[in-house]
Amino acid sequence: MTLLQWFIFFLIIQIVHFAGTWKLYEKAGRKSWEAAIPVYNSIVLMKIIDRPTWWTALLFIPVVNLMMFPVIWVETLRAFGKKSTVDTILGIVTLGLYIYYINYTQDVTYIPNKNAIPKENTISSLIFALVVATLVHTYVMQPFTIPSSSLEKSLLIGDFLFVSKFHYGARTPMTTVAAPMVHDTIPVAGVKSYSKLPQLPYFRFPGVQKIKRNDIVVFNWPMDTVYQFFDRSGRKADKPIDKKSNYVKRCVGVPGDNLSIKDGIIHIDGKELILPERAKPQFSYKVVIDGKTPINFEYLLKELDITDKAYQISPDTLLFSALTFEGAEKMKNTPGITNVIRNISREADKAVFPHTKPWSQDNMGPVYIPEQGKTVELNAETLPFYSYLITEYENNDLKVNGDEIRINGEIAKSYTFKQNYYWMMGDNRHNSEDSRYWGFVPEDHIVGKPVFIWMSLDQNIPWSKAIDKVRWDRLFTTVGGDGEPVSYFKYFLIALLGYFGYSFYKKRKAKA
Questions:
Q1: pLDDT digits over 131-167, tens only?
Q2: Pairwise CA distance, residues 164 & 140, whole Å
């Protein structure tokens, strides 16, 4: 929706509100015209229903306002003595239009002292609790789970994360009509959780930090081909930005960088990117055995913490899907193993971005990562890098006729970017769907920063062995930081026991 359309929609809502409540405003000792003044009418209504003035702000927060409206409808009815269960149900199922009936047909009396009516209303209380949870979920911290091994060793399948929304700046919802606390699908029911219309423009609050190289970032997958991973069919699910599939990868290139990959090693502006200590990139390897020396591979997999699968591809060769550099070195020193060869793809692969170069997943570049306000030359060589960006992410009309490039009808020799872009990759280099295949991640797709692992469950251990299923050493660990992760779970238990002990002591003392 355009700003003009939003303004017209807002005025319609004000007219609807005035038409259905002006008599009630008068009965509450206010002037009827006060029901017609935008924003001010909400402030007055909060005084009438004896609720905090700051509740007015909640009516203008997308998604949250959908939950606040039923609360306001019910509280308005209660302020005029309509407090029965039937009144509450009618107020909600008629989307507040039951108030029209009260306004024009009922001789109700305003109850100025709300203490005469118990403030506790189960439905209103539950909805308001959901409002608070949604605010935290949208603007402060959101829980996520890790479904794939693309960041294995840093983040494991079965890790449960808290993702900070405020580090990079909380993004206001663009999808205004949606179920709270869920993403694109309602659990169990399996149906879409949102309406595509109406949509709000992109807006992000200021963050406390910028995205840096090597940060682990949660973002909305730009292409959003959600049918299956590594889907090359070209199928695309058309979703609003904030309802596209959530991904988590490591940011290895920031706006303005020139990124290259040489034999699997990332280079920025010609220099090798030094990864943090906790990052342990993995590659697939061929492991050759002599066929004579017995090798306990079950022990070896556990000793080297190898979590991805291994396959026998010939009588004397095994393919390990993912090994760290350290794991590969230890493998070389294992009796019975004669050679360990890292797989490096050099053959041209059309699936690799921008799909016009003789590049592979291990050898590509240089690629310029767009920076807001910077300009690039447009020609047959550069256009494949930025055509999708120009049309899909920055909403321009692009037409190419031979060597002629037109943007929004005008001949274009260059293009200036409207926002920043990032290059995201998984540490599991040969098992990660990332920017090597679909290119840049726009800034308006950034969701947040993973900061804390509060639970971790080993997916290979059945629930019948629940104690063993929990990765106790990963509970209450930070995602970032230097050195090996440290669990703060024991400190949490100590603090929890201390709290319960102190509460028990206070109750005993009060009874005495």
A1: 888 889 899 999 998 878 888 888 888 899 999 999 9
A2: 6
Identify whether 354 is preceded by a cis peptide bond (ω within 30 of 0): yes
User: How many C-alpha atoms does 54 have within 13 Å on its Cβ side?
Assistant: 0
For residue 384, give the 3-state DSSP assignment.
helix
Q: Name residue, tokens 């609720």.
A: 51
Other C-beta atoms lying within 10 Å of the C-beta of residue 442: 22
Helix (H, G, I), strand (E, B) or coil at 3: helix
| CA–CA separation, 377 and 352 (whole Å) | 22
> What are the pLDDT digits (tens) for 376-397?
999 999 999 999 999 999 999 9
H/E element holding 496? helix 489-511
Condensed to tens digits (0 to 9), the pLDDT of residues 313-355 reads 898 999 999 999 999 999 998 899 999 999 999 999 999 999 9
- CA pair distance 40, 399, nearest whole angstrom: 48
Residue 417, number of CB atoms within 10 A of its CB: 21
SS3 180: coil
In this structure, of 33-47, 234-248, 438-452, the range with the lowest mean pLDDT score is 234-248
Residues in the chain: 512
Could you tell me which of 477, 456, 479 has the C-alpha nearest to residue 163?
479
CA distances (Å), 398 to each of 378, 388, 394, 407, in order?
12, 9, 11, 5
Report the predicted TM-score, pTM, of the whole model to 2 decimal places. Answer: 0.84
- Tokens found for residue 86: 């039937």
Pull the structure tokens for residue 384.
Answer: 């494949």
Q: Tokens 């990562």, residue?
A: 369
